[in-house]
Amino acid sequence: MAEAGLASTEDLPPKAPLVEGGQISDHRDGREVVLRLRGIRTQFGDKVIHDNLDFDVFRGEIVGLVGGSGTGKSVLLRTIIGLNRAREGTIEMLGVDTSTLHGKSQREMLARTGVQFQDGALFSSLTVTENIIVPIREHAELEDQTMREIAALKIGMVGLPADTGMKKPSELSGGMRKRASLARALALDPELLFLDEPTAGLDPIGASHYDELVKGLCRNLGLTILMVTHDLDSLNAICDRIAVLLDKRVVVGTMAELLEYDHPWVREYFHGPRGRAARQEHK
Ligand SMILES: Nc1ncnc2c1ncn2[C@@H]1O[C@H](COP(=O)(O)OP(=O)(O)OP(=O)(O)O)[C@@H](O)[C@H]1O
Ligand SMILES: [Mg+2]
């Protein structure tokens, strides 16, 4: 869906050539690729969302995924974690082709990833502790008390007071709910973390505290994070690289590279009024 005020992408000159994995330049620098998408096509009925999409994520980095509303950011996350099936293409996660995973091997791979969905998706009838225990119970056979101790650890890790565990999601502020759903995403000590607009709806201070938390977790736990966001401050503050969904494909670059990238949506996004801070930072 084209956003109001943006130029049509149909009459554009041919796209600048990208190097492997949708990158503007080679960012690999000897690092392990923990997520490799090649030739991904997703569609619903006749509506094609992604077409021939390539995308690489390296171990230990935080990649921000941006793009206009409805361009398929959430669908891409859902496709990566197996909730939506790509019509074509391959997804390699932690070195394994995910199409070869079934049953136990699929559950084991899921246990190595954590997801925070766009709407938080905590179970409203369960307490925060019980919410965090849900994925633990699915993947491990542990005593109830041990699971509660793990949940308490995760609650502390995301900076929530200990008594949050006893509360229901409806008793928490929006920011606390986001941290609680992050705690649940961390329940199984994942290597790969997927976050869908985690700071949407937070005030700027709450959002920047959340960003610092995510950055700290990434550095201290050695996580790799793919984060959908509309928040230019987050992109600036914590993302090592930025992936932009454009014309059904992904273009990945550093902020400096994207500020130079010639595409109407990219120009409007990074050079519009909201992109001013980003521009100044990279002068
Ligand atoms: N299960 C589904 N069935 C049919 N169409 C779908 C389904 N899920 C998503 N879509 C469509 O796919 C497109 C991409 O949706 P998606 O939720 O990925 O957008 P998005 O980039 O995350 O947008 P936003 O920034 O608003 O969250 C939309 O047009 C949406 O209507
Ligand atoms: Mg979305």
TrEMBL record:
It holds the Pfam family ABC_tran. Residues 1-23 are annotated as: Disordered. Residues 35-272 form the ABC transporter domain. InterPro entries: AAA+_ATPase, ABC_transporter-like_ATP-bd, ABC_transporter-like_CS. The keyword Ubl conjugation does not apply. SMART domains: AAA. GO terms for molecular function: ATP binding. PANTHER family: PROTEIN TRIGALACTOSYLDIACYLGLYCEROL 3, CHLOROPLASTIC. Belongs to the ABC transporter superfamily. This is ATP-binding cassette domain-containing protein.
